[in-house]
User: Which sequence fits this backbone?
């Protein structure tokens, strides 16, 4: 006995000389291409400066927001922000033994440190970086039981005068900057302009609410009146 | 449903099929009781569903920084939000007249951008840092400086310690700090910034919510101060709508009940 065609032959029916399943396949390919193109162009590519978060999550490590003196931020991996040598964070932790964990916070599920790198030590190929690498190498050769692999420990030992290096390790933050961040008094003039703008905004909000209400009253009454008229027609007996 | 199992063009020829139906000798061949073309369609469908799930997963991971996209599209600064619960987020807040605020007027938290030095950059966009329990934008460098200063000060000045904002303010006003540190506060070049350390030295009762509600309250009172449009001008659209609606309802009811 002959078996019926799958889906009653709907996918085998010729449309413009091409079988239905080819059209369906073409449509699915287009959906696949366009949906991925949408994600890439509208979501993934614009987020490029923040891909460090995804990489850290994928590598199951922490991320770091590196900031310089002007708060220019970069979202990078933990290793890039904390480790002096070209090695993984696990190797650095194993080498240093007493690794200091100070996590500033969380970006979603990823632990994230905010690191102030005021001397741009984390920039690769700079004079400062070479000087740090050289000084740390020497220290590690002479102190195999107390190795340095992180900038944090390097900075700590510099402040304790345990290690010497020919680059500055401290910086003076002037009082003007501190005064701006923590002013003694709050100046009302600094936000009085905003209060006026907010007053206007609140006014507009209320007015647009009333206008919206007027529209809904009209729409509602049109629907109810339409139902009355419709009812008249439906209940009409010839 | 019955599948076209193991059918070839030759086999299908026996069955009377409409002339508009095309049976391909290869693509209609069944593999595990399913024709090759259906395998292809299912493969594509899984591809669409799978790739979109993958992107949705990526979006979930990137969710805390999606405010960057919104700020990027609106050409506005982005805001790195430091919660007291240590959760960070990049948000898109409106910047108007030195104030950072949510676009929605019902979200009352607001921050004053007092220090231009607290404005940084991330991914080409102007970036401000704020925290929920302080009403100024955050300058992490200044915060590290204050924490470093307090630590050092307390070592050498046991009888006049700096334990909170009031102490800091008092010492600063007396000029003692600037006398002892005329060039500013010396801090290490490399710091892992801990946002919780400054909590001790922040002025009390200065949360973004308190500041925001103060501004909103002022703005609301200002609305009653200024010469508003007359009440009947304000309610004209609603009044007109009510009148037109009533007339429409009365007429349609009269028509429906046979009164017209």
Assistant:
């Amino acid at each position: 006995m002959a078996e019926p065609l799958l889906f009653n032959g709907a996918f085998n029916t010729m449309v413009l000389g091409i079988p239905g399943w080819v059209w369906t396949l073409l449509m699915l390919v287009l959906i696949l291409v366009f949906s991925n193109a949408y994600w890439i162009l509208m979501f993934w590519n614009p987020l490029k400066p923040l891909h460090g978060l995804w990489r850290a999550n994928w590598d199951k490590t922490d991320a770091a927001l590196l900031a310089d003196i002007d708060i220019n931020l970069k979202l990078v991996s933990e290793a890039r922000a904390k480790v002096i040598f070209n090695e993984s964070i696990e190797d650095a932790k194993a080498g240093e033994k007493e690794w200091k964990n100070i996590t500033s916070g969380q970006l979603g599920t990823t632990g994230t440190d905010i690191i102030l790198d005021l001397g741009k030590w984390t920039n690769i190929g700079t004079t400062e970086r070479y000087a740090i690498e050289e000084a740390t190498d020497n220290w590690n050769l002479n102190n195999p039981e107390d190795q340095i692999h992180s900038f944090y420990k390097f900075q700590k030992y510099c402040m304790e005068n345990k290690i010497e290096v020919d680059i500055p390790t401290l910086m003076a933050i002037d009082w003007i900057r501190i005064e701006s961040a923590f002013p003694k008094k709050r100046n009302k003039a600094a936000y009085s302009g905003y209060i006026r703008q907010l007053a206007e905004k609140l006014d507009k909000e209320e007015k647009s609410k009333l206008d919206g209400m007027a529209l809904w009253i009209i729409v509602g009454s049109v629907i109810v009146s339409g139902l009355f008229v419709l009812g008249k027609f439906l209940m009409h007996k010839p | 449903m019955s599948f076209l199992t193991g059918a070839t063009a030759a086999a299908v020829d026996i069955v009377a099929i409409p002339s508009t139906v095309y049976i391909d000798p290869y693509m209609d061949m069944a593999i595990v009781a399913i024709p090759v073309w259906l395998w292809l369609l299912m493969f594509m469908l899984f591809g669409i569903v799978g790739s979109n799930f993958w992107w949705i997963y990526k979006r979930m991971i990137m969710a805390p920084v999606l405010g960057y996209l919104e700020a990027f599209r609106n050409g506005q600064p982005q805001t790195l939000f430091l919660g007291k619960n240590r959760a960070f987020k990049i948000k898109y807040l409106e910047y108007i007249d030195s104030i950072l605020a949510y676009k929605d007027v019902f979200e009352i938290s607001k921050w004053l951008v007092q220090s231009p030095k607290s404005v940084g950059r991330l991914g080409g966009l102007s970036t401000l840092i704020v925290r929920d329990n302080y009403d100024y934008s955050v300058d992490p460098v200044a915060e590290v400086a204050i924490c470093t200063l307090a630590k050092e000060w307390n070592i050498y000045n046991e009888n006049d310690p700096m334990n909170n904002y009031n102490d800091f303010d008092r010492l600063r006003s007396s000029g003692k700090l600037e006398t002892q540190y005329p060039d500013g506060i010396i801090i290490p070049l490399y710091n892992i910034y801990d946002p919780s350390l400054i909590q001790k030295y922040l002025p009390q009762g200065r949360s973004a919510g308190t500041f925001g509600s103060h501004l909103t309250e002022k703005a609301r009172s200002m609305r009653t101060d200024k010469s508003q449009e007359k009440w009947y001008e304000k309610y004209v659209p609603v009044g007109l709508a009510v009148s037109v609606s009533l007339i429409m309802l009365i007429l349609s009811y009269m028509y429906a009940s046979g009164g017209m």
